[in-house]
Amino acid sequence: MAELGQAAGYGNNSTAQNVFAFYTDQALSAPIKYYAYDGGTFPTTGSAETTTNTILAGTAGNSNISMICLVDTTNAAPSSAWKPASPTGGEANPNRLKGTTNYVEQDGSNLTAASRATFNMVIEIPSDVTTASTMTFDLTVEYSYTGTAPSPEFQFNNEDPGTGTEGTPDWDSITQDTYGIKHTRAGVTYPDLYANIPESGTEDTAEGHATD
């Protein structure tokens, strides 16, 4: 049967460093970059990438900015309430993601073989989003390498309470085209906005995966 995994420390108001990860089995030659594009059909060329879906274009309720917030935590854990109120043009950490207009670059050294870049994210949903709104998106990673091509993957920290070593990440893979991240509304941030930002001490579910 299928069940929801729990990404430990997911969301804003979290200082967790190990929540989601980009894993590479081979060394990279530059820091990775996180971008968001319209979901549905994964782009095969740069010209096919668009950012017109509601989740990236925003609504009047959030002053027409991207709803996707991401912070790179590779070099250090984030501060509490790291979600940016507005996007920064180009690269910033944290930032709201919208194609190459607003994106996040990994902090720290280039990834070596069998290593991870870690990050956290949240989606802030304005109250004027409707059932007709287009809310799908692809989180994409740009990476560079020399030599052997890597076989990268997304992972999440499924650190189950009471199992394993407390505080040690339990990394589970997110299989492309099979699993994803489920973002859940959790409360109100400021007037007119509803968000999936957990309050302190809460844990949201993320990423459905199969289990026996």
Question: Would you spell out the secondary-structure blueprint of this structure?
Answer:
Elements: E1 2-6, E2 20-24, E3 33-38, H1 54-57, E4 68-72, E5 90-91, E6 95-96, E7 102-105, E8 115-126, E9 137-142, E10 153-157, E11 171-174, E12 187-188, E13 193-195, E14 205-210
Parallel strand pairs: 5-7
Antiparallel strand pairs: 1-14, 2-8, 2-10, 3-7, 3-9, 4-6, 4-8, 8-13, 10-11, 12-13
Strand-residue proportion? 25-35%
Order of helices and strands: EEEHEEEEEEEEEEE
Main sheet attributes: strand count, strand direction, barrel closure: 8 strands, antiparallel
Radius of gyration: 17 Å
Q: What's the total count of β strands?
A: 14
User: Could you report the average pLDDT, rounded to the nearest whole number?
Assistant: 80
Number of helices: 1
Helix content: under 10%
What is the total domain count?
A: 1
| Distance linking N and C termini | 6 Å
Shape: globular
Unreliable stretches: 185-212
Give the structural class: mainly beta
Explain what the structure shows.
There is one protein chain. With 212 residues, this protein is an all-beta fold. It has one domain (2-210). It contains 1 helix and 14 strands; from the N terminus they run βββαβββββββββββ. It has one helix at residues 54-57; strands at 2-6, 20-24, 33-38, 68-72, 90-91, 95-96, 102-105, 115-126, 137-142, 153-157, 171-174, 187-188, 193-195, 205-210. The strands form 3 sheets. Strands 2, 4, 6, 8, 10, 11, 12 and 13 form an 8-stranded antiparallel β-sheet that branches. A 4-stranded mixed β-sheet has the order 5-7-3-9, with no helix packed on it. The chain has a two-stranded antiparallel ribbon with strand order 1-14. A hairpin with a 4-residue loop joins strand 12 and strand 13. The longest helix is centred in the N-terminal third of the chain and has 4 residues, at 54-57. It is globular and about 45 Å long. The N and C termini lie close together (6 Å). Residues 185-212 have low confidence and may be disordered.
